[in-house]
Design a protein that fits this description.
There is one protein chain. This protein has no helices and eleven strands. It is mostly beta strands. It has one domain: 3-layer Sandwich (Rieske Iron-sulfur Protein). It has a four-stranded antiparallel sheet, with no helix packed on it. The chain has a four-stranded antiparallel sheet with strand order 5-6-7-8, with no helix packed on it. The structure holds FE2/S2 (inorganic) cluster. Residues 43, 45-46, 48, 62, 64-65, 67, 80 line the site of FE2/S2 (inorganic) cluster. The site of FE2/S2 (inorganic) cluster (FES) has 9 residues, from loops.
């Protein structure tokens, strides 16, 4: 496991979603209440790119069919209506060091 710099701490506003690529891995970094969280970037319903989604309070919403996820651990809050169970997103450890936001892969 290695820590990678994703962006500068000041480059995101609250409720921003930032898509990053580290090697072959794509992820989204979210800022909520001044804290940063990172998950995989594809919705587990139909692979919609969640960097085009939005944050409402402490919830990540997929704009395609409105599945909702917890940005803290990637867990599913609610699947799309009538879709049945969907898998959680992958969650990545995040830390801020000397003004840089770092993600561990
Ligand atoms: S693709 Fe995200 S809810 Fe359907």
């Amino acid at each position: 496991m290695t820590w990678y710099k994703v962006t500068e701490e000041g480059s995101l506003k609250n409720e921003d979603i930032f898509k990053a690529k580290i090697g072959n891995e794509e992820l989204i970094l979210m800022k909520i209440g001044g804290k940063f969280f990172a998950t995989s970037h594809l919705c587990t319903h139909e692979n919609y790119d969640l960097s085009e989604g939005f944050i409402d309070g402490e919830t990540l919403i997929c704009p395609n069919h409105f599945a909702t996820f917890n940005p803290v651990d990637g867990s599913v809050i609610s699947p799309p209506e009538g879709a049945g169970d969907i898998s959680p997103l992958k969650s990545y450890p995040v830390k801020v060091e000397n003004g840089s936001v770092m993600v561990e892969l």
